[in-house]
Design goal:
By secondary structure, the chain is of the alpha/beta class. The chain is built from 13 helices and 16 strands. The strands form four sheets. A four-stranded parallel β-sheet has the order 3-2-1-4, with helices on one face. Bound molecules: zinc ion. Zinc ion binds next to helix 10.
Length: 450
């Protein structure tokens, strides 16, 4: 297969959604200043930006000190440039990835608090894209959200404006998804030791694997069970931070299990079948799991989940109009997922069928997940909400937040409402409470009934 055919196959969803690719001959230079790259935040931003840019363009140059990956991130002690170049070529063997200094003709994404006319910077819950210097004070926080969000926003703007990004300033507080308008407030840090318990994921497609990518940047301290019956195809790679050429033909859950294992997450079960056929799901015990990430729509999966009195659910979605979102369902408090998606019964995903047959219809919800930065954004936003579960103040936000990337990034939080006559209105609250007992986040439901 020549490079052109390879790229056409790999970028199928991107081309159908946006009608264009980035010019493959235009170089993007990802530069990190030497101070920022020695920090957790700088390395999380770099790993995210490189992973995403390499799925958007074959011409990415890395201009950063080749320092060891720091403790608490996956792949610790490996040199960050060597590691990143290896991973970039695994995702695109035809790419032109290299390590070299910035050149004037490059499109520059500069990670750091200063050092370029436009910078990309994040620490803790804060993300900043705009003119130097960054308003975010330098602190040591093991929280990748702000840093990774700044990287995703910078990459999204590069694509939206097709290398002609106008000057722009955004300081975002991802703790409450507010535009901070240039002012950095004190927000609660994450606990020093993160333990997320037992997480089950239904659907390890683009958004699901994006959540796994950002979770492992945050902590490797969780166990997980992954449900998905599909196999990895080449066109999945651009929208997933973890799938590579080596995974093509493998079951998605097996590819994800391998990735997690390499990141240091050792307790992973891969269940390559539809949820309703899974013995693990059917024999689910009271209080298990602690959290359900439901990142799939096919085969009536939401009805199947909601009929079985699920624990708290958090996930991300990508939508039409270049939009991403994160959604939360706390049992007995929030509307359920069928309130929100009443008409997804028995609709198959593209992933489950021949990909060449159905994708001319842009109204098909699965084709929406077609831009790499939207999947990354949805995964990161969902991960942020999952991390907030560890804070005593939770829940302190509406149950749904959108990111609009057109014409410029903007976050909007708006709670969804219960749907009259939905199956959740007929469920027994007392049965639900009993089935939640013992799960890590059951108190969120109990608190609301008082
Ligand atoms: Zn409902």
């Amino acid at each position: 297969m020549n490079h052109q055919d390879y790229r056409a196959e790999r970028d199928d969803r991107l081309l159908r959604y946006a009608g264009r690719q980035l010019d493959p001959n235009r170089w993007i230079c990802l530069r990190v200043d030497s101070e920022y790259v020695s920090t957790f935040s700088g390395q999380a931003a770099f790993l995210t930006a490189a992973t995403l840019l390499g799925r958007m363009s074959p011409s990415v140059a890395l201009d950063t000190p080749n320092v060891p990956v720091i403790e608490s991130l996956p792949w610790q002690a490996q040199n960050i440039c060597d590691l990143t170049l290896k991973r970039l070529y695994e995702s695109d063997p035809h790419g032109n990835f290299c390590e070299r200094p910035f050149r004037d003709e490059d499109f520059l994404i500069h990670l750091g608090s200063e050092g370029a006319p436009s910078i990309t910077h994040g620490i803790g819950w804060y993300a900043y894209v705009g003119p130097e210097p960054s308003p975010i004070p330098t602190t040591v926080e093991i929280n990748p959200v702000g840093a990774c969000l700044a990287a995703v926003i910078a990459a999204a703007r590069l694509f939206v404006h097709d290398f002609n990004s106008p000057s722009f300033t955004l300081l975002l507080n991802a703790f409450d998804w507010s535009d901070a308008s240039g002012h950095v407030d004190s927000v609660p840090p994450l606990p020093g030791t993160l333990d997320l318990g037992d997480i089950w994921m239904v659907g390890t497609g683009s958004v699901g694997t994006s959540i796994l990518f950002f979770l492992t940047l945050s902590t490797q301290n969780f166990s997980t069970t992954l449900f998905d019956m599909d196999q990895v195809k080449r066109l999945n790679i651009t929208r997933s931070p973890i799938f590579t050429e080596d995974h093509i033909g493998l079951e998605k859950v097996e590819a994800a299990r391998k990735y997690l294992h390499n990141c240091g997450v050792t307790s992973v079960r891969a269940e390559p079948c539809p949820l309703h056929e899974s013995a693990i799901w059917k024999q689910r015990q009271t209080g298990s799991p602690d959290l359900l990430i439901s990142a799939a729509n096919e085969l009536n999966v939401r009805h199947g989940i909601e009929n079985q009195y699920p624990p708290i659910q958090i996930y991300g979605t990508t939508g039409q109009n270049w939009q991403a979102a994160t959604i939360r369902h706390i049992p007995l408090l929030d509307p359920c997922s069928v309130c929100l998606f009443p008409n997804t019964e028995y609709s198959k995903t593209l992933c489950a069928t021949d990909t060449n047959q159905r994708s001319t219809d842009l109204d098909n919800e699965q084709v929406d997940a077609a831009l790499p930065f939207l999947s990354f954004a949805a995964g990161l936003m969902a991960t942020a909400e999952i991390l907030k579960l560890t804070l005593p103040e939770y829940p302190f936000l509406p149950n749904r937040t959108f990111l609009n990337t057109l014409p410029e990034p903007r976050f909007v939080s708006a709670s969804m409402k219960s749907r009259k006559g939905c199956l959740c209105t007929k469920r027994s609250n007392s049965i639900h409470s009993k089935l939640l007992a013992g799960s890590r986040f059951a108190h969120l439901s109990a608190r609301q009934r008082d």
